[in-house]
Each structure stands twice: as structure tokens, then as C-alpha cells.
Recover the amino acids of this structure.
């Protein structure tokens, strides 16, 4: 057990893991954005903000890793301010909270489940965009896409994300 005067160590383990999940329904006639990339498709993802299911799951994984409130608490869908919002705003806020807690992203792994469009041709671009947003090398961003076999989810997109955070030594920690 940690001593009472050892709180910092007790609350700042060298690594922290985060997990995020999200799902959105496809709707005709709206743009499709996945992982911060616009994809040409007849349908987009409806609901909260721009419906970027992957950025939402990543945001929740980051927030969960530092035990912060989740995306729905920070950016309530009921608030008209977030209607049609660029989900990059949510991810940036989550990353800011991660840094304030004294951590940086080590690596991330994501699974996308959707019937269409095919993600394969866009996977490299999505990984590069995510790496840029998370300030890590693209080799630290895993992305798999699967079709929803036997799940009866033909009109939905689902994302699962795990993220590993590493504690940033105080000396090298960035200001602001
Ligand atoms: Zn969402």
C-alpha cells in the first residue's frame, strides 16, 4: 500500500489504459466523416455533432484513461452548440486533459465495424490523420475495419478503441 505522503505516485502510475466505444446510424444525404477524414459515400453518420464515430470512441478512450468525465458529459448532445460540430474539437479537449494529468499517448488501437464504405482504401489516410491529431507516429496507430457479420448492423457504424498513455517525466513536460 502507498504511504499517505506518496499520493503523487499512487495517482500517477507510469502507464494508464483507456477504452472507448461509440456507434452511429447511417442517414442519407449527409456527409460521412470517419477518423477526421471525409469519405465519399451516399450516407453519413447522424446524431451528435458531425457523427465521427471513430473520433468519438478515441475521445472517450482518452478521457477514460485519465478518469475524466465522458464525451456526453463534456459535450452534451442536447446542447445546440455541438450540433454539426467538428469532432476534432472533442478530441483536442480530451488530449488537453491527458496532458494536464501528466500523460502522453503511447499507442492506440481501433476497430471499426461497418458494412460500407470499404475502409481499406482510406485506412492509411485515417491513420496519418489520427497520428497528427494525437501527436504520435503513424506506427503507433492501429486501425482494423470489419464488416458486421451476423450482427444485423448493416445501417450502423461502430468503433472500439483502446489507448495506452505514458507518464511524461516532469522535467520534459510541455508548458501550457
Ligand atoms: Zn458519437
Amino acid at each position: 500500500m502507498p504511504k499517505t505522503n506518496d499520493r503523487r505516485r499512487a495517482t500517477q502510475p507510469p502507464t494508464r489504459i483507456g477504452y472507448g466505444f461509440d456507434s452511429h446510424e447511417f442517414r442519407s444525404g449527409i456527409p460521412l466523416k470517419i477518423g477526421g477524414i471525409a469519405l465519399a459515400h451516399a450516407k453519413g453518420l447522424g446524431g451528435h455533432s458531425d457523427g465521427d464515430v471513430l473520433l468519438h470512441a478515441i475521445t472517450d478512450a482518452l478521457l477514460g484513461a485519465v478518469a475524466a468525465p465522458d464525451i456526453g458529459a463534456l459535450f452534451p448532445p442536447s446542447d445546440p452548440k455541438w450540433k454539426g460540430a467538428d469532432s476534432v474539437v472533442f478530441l483536442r479537449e480530451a488530449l488537453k486533459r491527458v496532458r494536464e494529468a501528466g500523460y502522453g499517448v503511447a499507442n492506440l488501437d481501433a476497430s471499426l465495424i461497418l458494412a460500407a464504405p470499404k475502409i481499406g482504401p482510406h485506412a492509411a489516410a485515417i491513420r496519418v490523420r489520427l497520428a497528427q491529431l494525437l501527436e504520435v507516429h503513424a506506427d503507433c496507430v492501429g486501425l482494423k475495419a470489419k464488416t458486421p457479420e451476423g450482427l444485423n448492423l448493416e445501417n450502423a457504424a461502430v468503433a472500439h478503441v483502446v489507448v495506452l498513455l505514458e507518464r511524461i517525466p516532469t522535467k520534459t513536460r510541455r508548458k501550457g
Summary: The mean pLDDT is 92. The two ends are 33 Å apart (CA to CA).
